[in-house]
Amino acid sequence: MPVAVQEQPTNPIESIKAALTNVTVSETKEAFDLLSYAHFDATPSIGTEFRSYSKDGKPILSIRDILGNKDREKALGKLVSERGVVFFRDAVISPEEQIKLVDSLGKLNGKPSTSGLHVHPLTLGGSEFGDEVSVISNQFVFDNKYKRDDFSVLKRRFHADLWHSDITFEPVPSDYASLQIRQLPKVGGDTLWASAYEAYDRLSPAYKTFLEGLTATHIGQGFIDILKKNGGTFREPRGSPENVGQDLSTVHPVIRTNPVTGWKGLFVNRGFTKRINELTQRESDVLLDFLFGHISANHDLQVRFRWEENSLAIWDNRSTFHTATEDLDSDKRVGTRSVSLGERPYLDPNSTGRREALLKAGA
């Protein structure tokens, strides 16, 4: 289904659409056909993996075949937005190349010129890989200054509570992100992703209509609590002139349109979404509890990825949720994450769900 475009955009939503002229759901003539390479869909609704070997005679696609080539990077960004998350095995890539890749995916697929790469509010200046790479570890929170002591079995957090989309507490949150685990545990530490498109499609028509009239407040409360305990201030600006302030709080629509696909998705997450603004507190608590359970309990909208050496995951934060599996005890898991910023979230009333769009396109 084509993303609607007007000749003279008059607002931010139309500006995003104008940047995506000729991007369609059913488009078959790509400058670079990613799916002609050895790959498989991990589940029907989310996740595509490019093989490190070929079972069907198709050629192997390496991430190095894509880096620095605009046509190929644009095609990759479109596929990530459609499938939610894309995996590469044997992906030799540096943290600096991760930064360039996710920034390029966003730029080539229409993100505003004011959106750069996110600087996490807890990242300390002078970190090993620079401000725009977050070090992900089960031993600390973004920097050794903020060590964790909750990784033993009796202190582990309840895993249904860990589902989130990156940095939705920012006015301009993430579009694309990438992660490579560079210090692997002996076993465990898998990551799961869930499809916001499929979460939306699994709701009744009446519920969809109800939710599309609502907004939610997102707060980075966990990071606020860490700062209160340790002192200091949050980094700012954080990759966009709008991502400033010390309260880590903003408002987003409950249902969001992905500008690359034109598909609607559920846009609340247990990590950061704290209140449905149009409801009473009790109504909000009940509704959010249902929606959070809707994401975490439905395995048919999830994919689970087991990390290997040089595995790379690239996902679209606008249309997915994810969580790590904290099952490592004292074993270490360390990776580098890069996060690109996109546009302010919006709901286009003319957009549709993924299943409806694919049905209309005959896919």
From TrEMBL:
Gene Ontology MF terms: 2-oxoglutarate-dependent dioxygenase activity; metal ion binding
UniProt KW keywords: Dioxygenase, Iron, Metal-binding, Oxidoreductase
SUPFAM superfamilies documented for this protein: Clavaminate synthase-like
Keyword Coiled coil: no
GO CC annotations on file: cytoplasm
InterPro entries per the UniProt record, alphabetical: AtsK-like (IPR051323), TauD-like_sf (IPR042098), TauD/TfdA-like (IPR003819)
Domain annotation TauD/TfdA-like: ranges: 61-336
Top-level taxon of the source organism: Eukaryota
Family: Belongs to the TfdA dioxygenase family.
PANTHER family referenced in this protein's UniProt entry, alphabetically: ALPHA-KETOGLUTARATE-DEPENDENT SULFONATE DIOXYGENASE, TAUD_TFDA-LIKE DOMAIN-CONTAINING PROTEIN
Protein name per Swiss-Prot or TrEMBL: TauD/TfdA-like domain-containing protein
Gene source species: Kwoniella dendrophila CBS 6074
